[in-house]
Design a protein that fits this description.
The chain has 336 residues and is α+β, with helices and mostly antiparallel strands. It has eight helices and 13 strands. Helices cover 24% and strands 23% of the residues. The strands form two sheets. A nine-stranded mixed beta sheet has the order 1-2-11-8-13-6-5-3-4.
Length: 336
Amino acid sequence: MDNCVEKMQIIKGLTPETLPVEFLNSAVPILLKGFVSDWPLVKAARSSDNDAIDYLQPFYQGFLVNTCMIPAGQHGVVSYNSEMTGFNFVNQQAPFIDVLKKIVDTVDQPLTDTLYIGSTSVAQCLPKLVDLCSVAPVNRDCLFNLWAGGKVTVPAHYDVAQNLACCVTGKRRFTLFPPDQIDNLYIGPLDKAPGGQPISLTTSKNLDCTQFPKFKDALKTAWVVDLEPGDALILPSMWWHQVEGLGRLNILFNYWFKNSPSFYGQPTNALHHAILNIRNLPKHERAAWQRLFNYYVFAENEFTHIPEHAHSMLANPMDELTARKLRADLQNKLRR
């Protein structure tokens, strides 16, 4: 694997109060060294895992978190079961602080299940911590979540939203793949995914080159980034990322935000609709629809042959009233 971190923009000296808003619109990942180093949680984590837990304890109000238990034989990799009828882990609800303590107590024990807390709202789990962990240019309407676990690996997946990920305890390794690597990543089912987004069927840790030969080509393009406590990563929408917890207790805070108005809706819905209506058409018809999509959606056409007042849904940007009318029209058509 080529470690291409030297090709990535690495910024030092920025803080949550001084982050330029234009960085959040970056088309490529940006590594922010020491970005949240002054947070008390990060300082506690640098002392010890138990000090980090002690710092979080007063903020916790009893919210039960969804906890994945990955059997020891799976080596901490989140994945599917052998028949792909489900996943290789069991979910249970448990008190947040209790799970953190159990992770620390068991992470180095052989033949022990690996514990993992996936995306969990900080506002629900640690409500009084929210205002202490704000990032100035990030919209207050963003999704602010935490992730925690021992030595867990989540295979490559993408986020539709822009992502600002802050390592607050432990160490996280991100293996980043550009969006164009989807053909080499062996992505699992769209409608059956551990965290809601489809994931790769393999990882760089357990790669079977016979079953997944093209994954080696993806790894040649990979950017490998290790986040220490206090570091952050700006991860653009649709970049694939494999995430490994390398420390004994790894906690990540992340902010998901969109750079487009919420009334535009979710692009994933359009993908699913296209699969339903276009994917099974004859090849020549699919090719015609591909040209239409390129013309109306992906090309930078300005449609100057149409008077501007008649652009309607072709206006760029589309206004909120037109977007709401279009959504209502689509909803009515889908009900038929």
